[in-house]
Amino acid sequence: MYLVDTNVWLERFLEQAKAEEVREFLDRTPSDQLCLTDFALHSIGIVLARLGKPEAFVLFVRDTLLDGAVSLVRLDPEDMQALVGIMEQYRLDFDDAYQYKAAEKYGLVLVSFDSDFDRTTLGRKTPEQVLQER
Question: For the chain, which domains are there?
């Protein structure tokens, strides 16, 4: 199963350079194999609201979580000490450490465009790398 980082979802939403790669990854990966953190969900909401696209956020929630089978995962207060340790160990900011800890906690492969994860034990895969492994 895969934990899809915020930047992957936003790449598609904002039609950025790798939007087609993300589209193919999402089309070819069963939604019940995808996970999203609560932190990423809220971050996507903030970005889309700032862009004046709140309706896109509602559609995203409906497509992924309500009608789709994407799992929403979260960290507990007990995980915060480990999260801070991850920030220090790998020099990650809070949001990256949150994604990393969630992937670690739930045994998920982290799918991200963020190269900061390359210096971690878990690493990351891009959507294209996931597709190439199939």
Answer: 2-133 (3.40.50.1010)
